[in-house]
Design brief:
Strand content of chain A: under 5%
Order of helices and strands of chain A: HHHHHHHEEEEEHHHHEHHHHH
Helix content of chain A: 55-70%
Distance between the termini of chain B: 33 Å
Strand order of the largest sheet of chain B: 1-4
Strand content of chain B: under 5%
Number of helices of chain A: 16
Number of domains of chain B: 2
Mean pLDDT of chain A: 82
Radius of gyration of chain B: 24 Å
Number of strands of chain A: 6
Structural class of chain B: mainly alpha
Structural class of chain A: mainly alpha
CATH topology of the largest domain in chain B: ABC transporter involved in vitamin B12 uptake, BtuC
Mean pLDDT of chain B: 79
Helix content of chain B: over 70%
Oligomer: heterodimer
Number of helices of chain B: 17
Strand order of the largest sheet of chain A: 1-6
Shape of chain A: globular
Number of strands of chain B: 4
Largest sheet of chain B: 2 strands, antiparallel
Low-confidence stretches of chain A: none
Order of helices and strands of chain B: HHHHHHHEHEEHHHHEHHHHH
Shape of chain B: globular
Largest sheet of chain A: 2 strands, antiparallel
CATH class of the largest domain in chain B: Mainly Alpha
């Protein structure tokens, strides 16, 4: 037992992954919580077991991998990239080229997952290495625009290479998430319902467990990258590139590593994203997706792992929560519930309703829920950047520090 | 010897070699495409003379519109040092409100009976809307972030952009609003300098040029303009000199917004259709134009806009179509010999920039012997790709733009 919290007597204990007992306990509890989610065993949160929620959570897990990658590049190494969706697309299309079923109009090799998943990451990483030299010459906001150009060039490619990407409006199917040694029957399949160790699980739940393991692995890698030589070099380049070079940090190598590793994360995430959705059109990989990741790391807190994970779940789950709230109020208005007066303010009831700007239908004047979400997304980014530049992580730190010393102020 | 000393100073690492290769490839493609387009023209497979002229006129008109939007980006970047992504939405807001006024005039008959007065009122309304939007954005979103790192206001502006797009969507719906038809005397072709220019396009070019000259006079000749240049140079010193920095920044946004409003009406004259998404791509293109011309440089922004418009209309149809041309073997071998000769000479003199031309010639030689010809699918959709490729190439090879950037030291690329 050491004397007081946060007193580290040697370097090893300070650099440990989980330096305090509280952290160890918290991580263990979080893991148990995560394992219980698809089983519906958590009282009060058993609705998370439903397919519609699990699909969203799976998407959040995939996004977490991509966001961790962007966080390494933008948050730690300081290279602003608006081209993350391009690297994800590279990964996804590599995966479908190697793993997808060949057809009359599309190419595919039907290789097993242990080839196409790493290959997706590696292909994206190679493209990242090719892009990296521009980051050495072009800085800051200019770099953001070069990477933005990648998104548009990529979109043109995906639209026109039907052999790879499928039709521009139909896309093509991705291979299912199943593990096989070679072509033939899979050993473990995550893509169909069935019992595991005597517990009946849906395909969503199985995918969830697969993605959970992947996220934990990638989080550990990111965390370790950040606290070792490579990560410290990145931080030095971010803070002042010239000073970093004078101290012996190789700027070119650092930026190349950052782009390669970040793109690797993006490639893997892109492949998994396509696989869990099953079928994607080329327009998926647009600028909005790239900006979503920038928003995730900024809302979560740039340069922090915990913040990135928090931000991902926040950004991915908020639309669903908004949707639920909207439907709740629409229901209240329709049935004259106790909160109908509040719903009256913004739910559109008839076409000539002036106040109501949210309509529960997809068409018609007024914002649909999807559009409301994009607008809210914009407002959220603004509010967070103005009020809390450190993001959710900053809020968490403040809450934690308040309770650390409670009831004393410091 | 001086050359040896220079060579010793010159650090030529793999990044430079990579960028050099990229530069060679770019020059090669452009040269091949241009020569190919001319060669195909001689054979009679290329574009006809009138098609060329139409492309040039369309490029000029669209380019001058980009130039007007680019002025807003350039001024804001010059003063505050960040890219105002929402500027495209400012432009869209002007065009959108202008539509409602135009539509009202059309139903009341003024649009048909007295087009000039109607379009002038629409212009004033659009300019007022855009100015108001720009100033409001500055007050609400950017002022609280004045002292934060550059990336933060950039992302905020993306947020503002999303919010504005969807707010307009919620207010007016997703349908494309089409401006009423301009009178026929405006759409007739007029012959100017041997070019057959459609009346609307001529009007667009004239309005753009007039606005540009007005802005230039404002920035260079008035007291407020001088204050703006001072704030762009150094905010703190400008404040010490008695300049109200906040007010100057608001003026900058207002003037940029006004230019975007004018551009909104020009867009309406050229394309007629306006929707909530209209502002997005022109906005990004205009930023490209601003960088192309050298950011912070007003003349550069305008010239960059015109250049970008020309690139966009000529690039896919001339350069990329020209790639279909098979390089003759004899020309290929001659180019190969010339290229190797220049490269050897350049290497012995230690001059790298000549080597790039040599490299392009070598590629030409290889392409000639190999009898390459490339047919690129979806040529007509390539506008955006051409614009962004131009941006990427400019940023890599001449980040300060074609006309030089005018920024405070810390903001330079």
């Amino acid at each position: 037992m050491r004397g007081r919290p946060n007193l580290f007597t040697d370097y090893e204990s300070e650099m440990a992954l989980f330096p305090t007992t509280t952290k160890r306990v918290a991580v263990a509890l979080l893991l148990i919580f995560a394992l219980l989610v698809p089983l519906g065993a958590i009282p009060g949160l058993s609705f998370l077991q439903e397919s519609s929620w699990l699909v969203l959570i799976n998407r959040a897990l995939v996004f977490a991998i991509a966001a961790l990658g962007l966080n390494l590049l933008t948050g730690v190494a300081g290279q602003v990239s608006l081209g993350h969706s391009f690297f994800m697309a590279v990964g996804a299309y590599t995966a479908v080229l190697l793993g997808g079923a060949p057809g009359k109009t599309v190419w595919g090799l039907e290789l097993p997952i242990w080839i196409w998943l790493p290959a997706a990451g590696i292909a994206a990483a190679i493209i990242g290495i090719i892009v990296a030299p521009t980051a050495v010459r072009v800085r800051g906001l200019y770099l953001a625009f070069v990477t933005l150009g990648l998104v548009f060039i990529g979109l043109h490619l995906w639209r026109n290479f039907g052999k790879v990407a499928g039709g521009p409006t139909t896309g093509r199917p991705w291979p299912p998430l199943e593990f096989a040694l070679w072509k033939g029957d899979p050993i473990i399949s995550f893509a169909n319902d069935g019992p595991w160790f005597g517990v009946q699980l849906t395909s969503d739940a199985k995918t969830y467990f697969f993605l959970l393991v992947a996220v934990i692995l990638f989080t550990l890698v990111a965390k370790n990258l950040m606290r070792t030589r490579i990560g410290r070099a990145w931080a030095a380049i971010r803070d002042r590139d010239i000073a970093a070079e004078i101290m012996g940090v190789n700027e070119v190598r650092g930026k190349t590593q950052a782009f390669a590793i970040s793109s690797f994360y993006a490639g893997i995430a892109g492949a998994l994203f396509a696989v869990i959705l099953g079928r994607l059109i080329p327009e998926t990989w647009d600028l909005l997706l790239a900006v979503e990741f920038i928003a995730i790391i900024l809302i979560g807190g740039a340069g922090t792992i915990a913040g990135t994970l928090l931000g991902t779940f926040f950004v991915v789950l908020i639309p669903r929560i908004v949707e639920d709230i909207t439907f709740f109020f629409a229901d209240q208005v329709a049935n004259q519930g106790p909160l109908a007066w509040l719903g009256d303010l913004f739910i559109r009831k008839s076409p000539d309703d002036i106040l109501g700007f949210v309509s529960t239908g997809a068409a018609g004047p007024g914002l649909s829920i999807f559009q409301l979400n994009v607008a809210l997304f914009g407002v959220l980014i603004i509010v967070f950047l103005i009020a809390e530049p450190l993001g959710l992580y900053g809020i968490w730190i403040r809450v934690r520090n308040y309770w650390k010393g409670w009831p004393f102020t410091y | 010897m001086t050359t040896t000393a220079e060579r010793a100073d010159f650090r030529f690492n793999w990044v430079d070699s990579f960028l050099l290769a990229l530069r060679i490839a770019a020059i090669f493609v452009v040269v091949w495409g241009t020569v190919g387009a001319l060669a195909l023209g001689f054979v009679g497979e290329g574009l006809s003379g009138s098609a060329w002229k139409d492309l040039i006129v369309a490029g000029l008109a669209q380019g001058s519109m980009y130039g007007l939007i680019a002025l807003g980006y350039s001024m804001v970047y010059g003063v505050l040092g960040f890219i105002n992504f929402a500027h495209g939405e400012v432009f869209m807001a002007g065009a959108m409100v202008g539509f409602f006024v135009a539509d009202y005039f059309f139903t009341s008959g003024l649009w048909v009976s007295n087009f000039v007065i109607a379009i002038l009122i629409v212009l004033v309304v659009a300019v007022a809307t855009s100015t108001f939007t720009a100033v409001l954005i500055e007050k609400v979103a950017y002022r609280p972030l004045r002292n934060s790192p550059r990336l933060i206001p950039l992302i905020t502006s993306i947020g503002v952009s999303f919010f504005l797009q969807n707010a307009v969507l919620g207010l007016v719906g997703p349908a494309v609003k089409t401006y009423p038809q301009a009178p026929t005397w405006l759409s007739q072709k007029i012959s100017v300098l041997g070019l057959q220019i459609e009346g609307t396009k001529l009007l667009v070019i004239v309005i753009a040029v007039v606005s540009m000259i007005g802005l230039w006079l404002f920035v260079e000749r008035t007291k407020t303009g001088r204050a703006m240049r001072a704030v762009a140079e150094d905010k703190e010193i400008a404040a010490l000199m008695g300049i109200d920095v906040d007010r100057t920044i608001v003026t900058t946004f207002a003037v940029g917004g006004a230019m975007a409003g004018v551009a909104g009406i020009l867009w309406a004259l050229l394309f007629r259709g306006v929707s909530f998404i209209t502002g997005f791509l022109p906005g990004i293109k205009a930023f490209t134009a601003a960088v192309l011309g050298g950011i912070g440089n007003l003349v550069g922004a305008m010239a960059g806009g015109v250049l970008l418009g020309l690139f966009e209309s000529l690039g896919p149809n001339v350069v990329l179509r020209g790639l279909r041309w098979e390089i003759p073997v004899s020309l290929g071998i001659a180019a190969l010999a010339a290229g190797i000769g220049v490269a050897v000479l350049a290497w012995r003199r230690g001059r790298v920039s000549v080597a790039s031309v040599a490299g392009a010639l070598i590629m030409l030689g290889i392409a000639g012997i190999g009898q390459w010809s490339i047919v690129i699918p979806g040529l007509t959709q390539l506008k955006d790709v051409v614009a962004f490729s131009a941006l990427v190439l400019v940023l890599i090879f001449k980040p300060s733009g074609l006309f030089g950037e005018q920024l405070a030291d810390e903001d330079r690329a």
